[in-house]
Amino acid sequence: MKRLISVILSLLILFGCQAKPLEWENLTILSPKGAPALSLIPLLDEAKDQIEFVDGTDVISAELIKGEQDMIIAPVNLGAALSKKGENQYRLYAVVTWGNLYLVGPSNTDISTETVAIFGEQAVPGLVFKQVLNQSTEAFASVTDVQGQLLAGQYKVGLLAEPLVTATIAKAKSLTPALELSILSDLQELWSNKTGQDNYPQAAIFVKSDLSEDKQAQIDARLLKMQAYNEAINQNPSQLETDITEERLTQLGVPSGKILASAWERMNINVQAIADVKDAVEVFLELFKLNGLENFYQE
What we know:
By secondary structure, the protein is an alpha/beta fold. The radius of gyration is 19 Å and the shape is globular. The protein has two domains: 2-98 and 199-287, Periplasmic binding protein-like II (D-Maltodextrin-Binding Protein, domain 2); 101-195, Periplasmic binding protein-like II (D-Maltodextrin-Binding Protein, domain 2), CATH 3.40.190. It has helices at 2-16, 35-38, 41-46, 58-66, 76-84, 124-132, 143-151, 164-173, 187-195, 213-235, 240-243, 246-252, 257-267, 274-287, and strands at 28-32, 50-54, 71-75, 90-98, 101-105, 116-119, 137-140, 157-161, 182-186, 201-208, 269-273. The protein has 14 helices and eleven strands. The strands form two sheets. The protein has a six-stranded mixed beta sheet, sandwiched between helices. The longest helix has 23 residues, at 213-235.
């Protein structure tokens, strides 16, 4: 609650205490579908920006190189990898989503004796898994493929990300015969035990490295809006059942508002300026040999 009040006060200062109140200008924003897209709901409500949601990272990677968008939400490691090559036209401005990976299977399963179905073998999910666990795995192309393997009973343990964790457990109960699945392990907890950091960053806001003062003010205003919404949903996740309309299900690439409300706490959407979380980002990037990059942060 204290943080929500702080964000609201910041908004009042930004919009109400300037000699000339900030007039919102249209920005172009690109985001992946899924959990990161939920952070942009308050900007969708404002309807003053051109916001595009895409599947996968191919378009996002290309746009980070081209430099034509005002804001891009992208995986932290993708932005860092492009910066290391000198190809990223953007800098990391704020973290949007944090680790939301869990092992799912029947509650009495001994994980150590099972081959785990995983996804993103060479991306964050697979790399984080290998950092915190040492056991047999079978890699699949996507998280939905892992879901399918679990529901078909081909694998007893699978690596899933929220909100698909909650959706999969619910779907398993509707099968005939019903399949009782539960969360067996929280990879964020294992990460914390190993690194001393509360969590690891996943998706972040990247902004152009040569922002004008006016454009920076526009982006700062949006960050505060996103943080205020984030805190409001923390207080009342059921609001998502209203905010996620039928149109937004497809637009954002998310399940129902009811599933999202149930999964919210484990989704770890926590919009924070880079100045507040830089250490956590550096620890994450260090483990993947992408730390210590020059001109990577917009502080």
